[in-house]
User: Which sequence fits this backbone?
């Protein structure tokens, strides 16, 4: 966890370490299989291509994570003179949390949501949609922004970004492996190698998917706690969460599909929980989040 005034969360730290270690092992195994098959089926050139794919995709996903996420939402970075109230709110929260100020972006969409992204606290961005700006009060919005800044300070955004890389790579190989040369060999060994890569890709994708979903659900609860404590107004965060979750259910499915690239990073889930199994959900149940905030409210003696 980054050093800030957000409350530390040992549970989140252990989970991030465990997921990172498990995915690291998967990454090594996956890379070894790719390189072995490429070398056996495509010669030295094939092995170099495999290694380049593994390293380039991992580095690019990490280094350009904030830019890619903002572009996927067609968000625009705004300066203080363009959004003075939003910047003032983030300035205040960053001062309270003793953390670097991220870039501030706004996405022109009626979907009421927000997300944080970036490889480090010094290279991060917080994005809000016009939909959330039009629906929340200043106090509710502050609670949401504190939640998103907690993600940055906790560095779970970085871990989630890196963790998602392996799943993306496995999916990429599964879909495009034939065109990369793994299926060009007409002999039996080439066909077997291609099948091995496909099977390993499917398994790696499934494991990384479940691991990142598990971490995603816990990190949302952790950010709720951190945001509530830093503002001292858990009821406002609960109000924002209830309001946004209700409004999200009325957004057309085609609009929600357009946000698929960053849906796991949203403040509130883009899919109705009844439509997916809890194991595959990126967010914990609304009831669990509200119950936690109610408990914090009692602890702080909030009226």
Assistant:
């Amino acid at each position: 966890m980054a050093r800030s005034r957000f409350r530390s969360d040992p549970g989140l730290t252990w989970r991030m370490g465990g997921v990172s270690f498990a995915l690291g092992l998967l990454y090594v195994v996956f890379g070894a299989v790719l390189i072995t098959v490429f070398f056996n089926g495509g010669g030295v050139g094939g092995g170099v291509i495999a290694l380049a794919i593994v390293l380039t995709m991992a580095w690019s996903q990490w280094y350009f994570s904030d830019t890619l996420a903002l572009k996927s939402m067609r968000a625009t970075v705004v300066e203080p003179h363009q959004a003075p109230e939003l910047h003032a709110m983030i300035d205040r929260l960053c001062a309270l949390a003793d953390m670097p100020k991220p870039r501030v972006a706004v996405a022109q969409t009626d979907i009421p949501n927000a997300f944080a992204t970036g490889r480090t606290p010094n290279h991060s961005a917080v994005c809000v949609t016009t939909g959330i700006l039009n629906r929340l009060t200043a106090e509710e919005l502050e609670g949401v922004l504190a939640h998103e800044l907690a993600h940055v300070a906790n560095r779970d955004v970085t871990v989630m970004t890196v963790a998602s890389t392996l799943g993306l790579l496995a999916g990429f190989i599964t879909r495009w492996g034939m065109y990369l040369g793994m299926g060009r060999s007409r002999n039996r060994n080439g066909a077997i190698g291609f099948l091995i890569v496909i099977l390993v890709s499917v398994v790696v994708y499934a494991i990384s998917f479940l691991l990142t979903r598990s971490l995603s659900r816990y990190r949302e609860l952790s950010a709720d706690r951190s945001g509530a404590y830093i503002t001292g107004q858990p009821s406002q965060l609960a109000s924002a969460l209830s309001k946004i979750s209700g409004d999200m259910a009325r957004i057309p499915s085609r609009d929600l599909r357009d946000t698929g690239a960053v849906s796991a990073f949203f403040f509130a889930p883009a899919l109705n929980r009844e439509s997916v199994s809890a194991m595959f959900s990126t967010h914990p149940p609304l009831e669990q989040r509200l119950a936690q905030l109610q408990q914090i409210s009692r602890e702080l003696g909030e009226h």
User: Anything to note?
Assistant: Residues 272-276 have pLDDT under 50 and may be disordered.
